[in-house]
Amino acid sequence: MSQTDAHTDIDLDPVTFEVLRSSFTNLVDRMAEQIQRTCYSFVIYNRDFSNCLNDAEGNTVMQGSQDIAVHVGTLHYTCKETLEYFEGNINPGDVYIVNDPYLGATHINDVRIMRPVFYDDELIAVTQSNGHWADVGGPSPGSFNIEANSHFAEGLRIPPLKIWDRGEFQDDVANLLVTNMRLSEDRMGDLRAQTEATRIAEERLLELVDKYGIDTVKTAFDESKNYVERIMRERIRDLPNGTWRTQDYIDGDPAKEEGFVTIDVEMTIDDDEVHYDLSGSDEYIGNFLNSTYGTSFSAVIAGTKMFFPDVPLNSGMYRVVDATLPEGTVVNAPEPVPVTGSVAGAYEKVMNAIFEMWSEVLPERAMACAFNLEYLLSGGTDRRPDRDGEEFMWYDWMAGGWGGRDGLDGANATAPVFGAGLAVQSLEGQERDTPLLTSQHSIVTDSAGPGEFRGGCGVEKGGRLLECENSVISYCSDRAYSVTWGLDGGLPGVPHGVTLTRADEDPKDLGTVFSNRPIETGDQFTRPSSGGGGFGDPLERDPDAVREDVIDDYVSIERAAKDYGVVIDAVDPDLCEYEIDHEATADKRDHIREHREGWLEADPESVAERYREGDLDQLDLVRRYGVILEWESGELLERTTAQFREMLERRAVAEWR
Question: Residues 469-480, buried b or exposed e (16+ Cβ, 10 A)?
Answer without folding.
Answer: eebbbbbbbbbb
